[in-house]
Amino acid sequence: MHLFRVRLILALIASVTLVSTASTYFDVLAHRHVLREDLERRTKWMGISIQPDVQGVLRTGDPSALPGLMQLLKSGTGALGLAVYDTHGKLMASSGPPDVMRALARGVVEKSLQRGIQVGAFGHEGEWQWLEEAFPIHDGNQLEGAMAIVADASYIRREANALWQRSFWRIVALVILIVAITLGMVRWFLLRPMSRVAERLRGLRTGRVDEHKEGTISKLGLFSPLEREVETMAESLKAARAAAEAEARLREAGEHFWTAERLAVHIRNRTGSSRIFVVSNREPYMHLRQGKEIVCVVPPSGLVTAIEPVLRACDGVWVASGNGDADGATVDEFDRLRVPPDDPRYTLRRVWLSEEEEARYYDGFANEGLWPLCHIAHTRPVFRAADWECYQRVNQRFADALLKEMEGDAEPVVFVQDYHLALLPQMVKRERPDARVAIFWHIPWPNPEAFGICPWQAELLDGLLGADLIGFHIPLHCNNFLATVDRVVESRTSREHMSVLRNGHLSAVRPYPVSVAFDAVAHLAATLSRPEMELERAAERHKLLSEFGVRAECLAVGVDRLDYTKGIVERLDAIEQLLETHPWHHERLTMVQIAAPSRTRIPSYVELRRRVDATVERINTRFQTARWKPIVLIERQCNHDEVRRWYRAADICLVTSLHDGMNLVAKEYVAARDDEDGVLVLSKFTGAAVELRDALLVNPYDIVGVAEAIHLGLEMSLIERRERMQRMRRQVMEHNIYLWAARVLGDLRELRLEPEERTEASHAAPGRVRRVEIPVGKLA
Ligand code: F6P
Predict the structure, then answer these.
(1) 302 CB under 6 A from ligand 1?
(2) How far is the CA of 422 from the centre of ligand 1 (A)?
(3) 500 and 482 Cβ atoms separated by less than 8 Å
């Protein structure tokens, strides 16, 4: 730093001196020019005024008038000398200092005589400096001779020197001032913020991260563009350090939970690279325009909640439909971008669908057809031939995009998501037999009778059976699938091995209960005492509810997409029932329902929203008082942090789906409760009910039963709440999303590519046979 200062000072001195000297030099030049011009003008006037007298001298040849003229010139204008010449340039008479008069350049007078014009030139000799101005003398047209006035010009040099002297001190003052100001500015605007950046980085390195980073960052001044980077780095380092600590603690405690890091290492060890290719309809990050700004939001989707942490851990490419209105503006020329935007870990490749494709493939076939087909929610599926045709086309578009992304990757691992892309496995496998393809069906698989109403069930099954591995949440869905395959297509299905052999290709069918990224660190690090936690929760509940003008001692929360499978209306009815049968909860309990609008172009969803609004209105009108209402409806998408605040403030969480593949809200609620408190009321028709046996399991159609379960939950003793929550947390922690991904991807990796052969199980046409040898539940 010292050397930097010395160098900076020297460079400043040199450059300021150079610039100032050059500027002074040009000032002096300009000043001299002005003085010379002035002298020339004055000398010219002198010449004109004495011309008649000089003419007399020339005519008479008598030089006696010269000294008098000279005296006149000297006193009036400070001239040095005067000389008179005949027409040949011969000196006739002169007056002035002999040194000067001798040194006069002959050429000046000669040129004036020859051209008949006034000619001037500056000259010098010893101390003398002068301007010699020669004038031709005419009588009419007749040239009579010439005269030269020698004007003293030495004051011009003196003035120039004086100017240099004055400038010297000015330059010195300037150098001192500029060096001082620059050093001050460097210190203020560069060194201080720089040392703050250094301080912050040091803090990060040593683990002493400044908790009040906002203050620190605002002081970064010139380096504030680094703010985001520094912040992100801080977050990553903090997360990495926390993960390492967690790993160490888990090891110390003899635990074997799965973490993001463990998953990445696990996949890398098996494949040499942890890179995977995921395809889904829903994208993990959506860009939207808000005024002039573009904001990035995470869509409300269980699929995204589950898959995003896996991609973060593994890296790779996620192919999905880009349907944010600013999605096109945020990709490169290959329709790709790295995400998460703040901390890029993997590539998102967007596929663009037209409005018609959205309407037919997504709204139509996927959500008016397959969605109600697979959920027993008593909404009739609608199948249209045009929607099916479009569904096939869009599946091919996703397949093409994926195949392009996979170019150059040998034996790529492909993980297809959900019912929107049932045909993709077969399409991909046809083009890339070396790819290892798994598909996970995030919704229930109904029994063969129910599935049988789909006119294109055989084509859908063939699409799915292109996969090497087909995953469902629970064994019941696997069995329903195997039964459907058995009934619909010619194949050999094995319940024992949970596999299907069709057209020489073997697909394994396995249950993998999807989960969430449980924060094992927070779990191990909970430090507050129970009364402190109670107080904190009460304060948070008060704060959250007062934003809606409500006061309540107890808080129930529901978080769902506005979907008819979620049993939202039934849940509201249960709250009404509770208030009827247990008036004790009046002005005591408020239920907050977060309902993210979903599939809003589909009539059944529009109708559901109308019903939910009307039900809330009815119940609130019936029971509300000045400072309390039983239901607060938040009909918008809330971000992860907002939802987490509601989870943590709630006494009870209500998940009353009429039918649900898994339902990750239940697991998210449990994962958020690191205070080990809170009650979960859970529909027995969700996949989560298979694992979370300590929830209060309900039949969502039984309104009285749900109301009683809520009452029971609100009255439950702290000890019981705690024991139940502890067991549920252990379940979610042990079976988190990393274990889920490790199992699916690990199983997929263990598929052995066998040379062409005929197996006893195969009764299909000769062809390439893949034998799958996956020990069931190997990683569980
Ligand atoms: O349950 C199936 C599923 O894809 C979930 O993963 C997700 O929560 C939900 O549907 C989202 O649906 P969409 O993508 O239509 O908003």
Answers:
(1) yes
(2) 14
(3) yes
**pLDDT given for residue 769 in this prediction:** 37
| Amino acid, res. 500 | V
From edge to edge, which strands make up the β-sheet containing 631-634? Answer: 631-634, 589-596, 554-561, 652-655, 679-683, 696-698
Report the number of secondary-structure helices (H) and strands (E) in the chain.
27, 23
pLDDT digits (tens, 9 = 90+) for 625-646: 999 999 999 999 999 999 999 9
For ligand 1, the distance from its centroid to the CA atom of residue 304, given in whole angstroms, is 8
Contact 442 CB / ligand 1 (< 6 Å) = yes
457-504 pLDDT, tens per residue?
999 999 999 999 999 999 999 999 999 999 999 999 999 999 999 999
What are the residues facing 505 on neighbouring strands?
A: 502
Q: What average pLDDT does this structure show over 147-169?
A: 88
The count of residues in the chain is 780
**CA-proximal residue: ligand 1, atom 10 (nearest):** 301
Q: How far apart are the CA of 464 and the centre of ligand 1, in A?
A: 18
Q: Which residues does residue 350 pair with via DSSP β-bridges, in sequence order?
A: 320
Q: Is 539 helix (H, G, I), strand (E, B) or coil?
A: helix
CA–centroid distance, 423 to ligand 1, in Å, is 18
209-259 pLDDT, tens digit per residue, is: 555 555 555 666 667 777 667 777 777 777 777 777 767 766 666 667 888
User: Which of 278, 283, 285, 301 maximizes ligand 1 atoms within 8 Å of its Cβ, making it the mutation to test the pocket?
Assistant: 301
Say if residues 369 and 387 touch (Cβ distance below 8 Å): yes
Residue whose token pair is 């997504």: 362
Distance separating the N- and C-terminal Cα atoms of the chain? 58
Q: Is 282 in the pocket of ligand 1 (CB under 6 A)?
A: yes
Q: Is 418 a pocket residue for ligand 1 (Cβ < 6 Å)?
A: yes
* Mean pLDDT across the chain: 88
Q: Quick check: 499 and 485 in contact, CB under 8 A?
A: no
Q: Is the CB of 659 under 6 A from ligand 1?
A: no
Q: Are the C-beta atoms of residues 348 and 283 closer than 8 Å to each other?
A: yes
User: By alpha-carbon position, which residue is closest to atom 15 of ligand 1?
Assistant: 599
Atom 14 (ligand 1): residue with closest C-alpha?
A: 282
- For ligand 1, whether the C-beta of 678 sits within 6 Å is no
8 A C-beta contact, residue 656 and residue 570: yes
Query: Which positions ≥6 away from 278 have C-beta within 8 Å?
Result: 307, 310, 311, 316, 317, 318, 319, 414, 415, 416, 417
Write down the pTM of the prediction. Answer: 0.71
Nearest to 571 by CA among 631, 529, 626, 636: 631
Contact 159, 53 (CB under 8 A): no
Distance (Å, whole) CA 89 – CA 98: 18
Cβ of 587: how many Cβ atoms within 10 Å? 19
* Ligand 1: centre distance to CA 432 (Å): 28
Q: What is the DSSP string of 347-359?
A: EEEEE---HHHII
Residue at 506: amino acid letter: L
Take atom 6 of ligand 1 and give the residue whose Cα is closest. 303
* Closest C-alpha residue for ligand 1 atom 11: 301
> pLDDT at position 672, please?
96
Ranges of H-type helices in 256-370: 260-271, 302-314, 355-357
Closest CA to ligand 1's atom 4: 303
For residue 91, give the DSSP letter.
E
Give me the residues paired with residue 560 across strands. 595
Q: What is the pLDDT of residue 254?
A: 62
Atom of ligand 1 nearest to the CA of 599: 15
The per-residue pLDDT for 393 is 98
Instruction: Give the integer Cα–Cα distance in Å for 510 and 478.
Output: 6
615 lines ligand 1 (CB under 6 A): no
Q: Is 366 in the pocket of ligand 1 (CB under 6 A)?
A: no
The continuous run of DSSP H or E covering 4 comes out as helix 2-60
Q: Which atom of ligand 1 is nearest to the CA of 302?
A: 8
308 exposure class (CB count in 10 Å sphere: 0-12, 13-18, 19+): buried
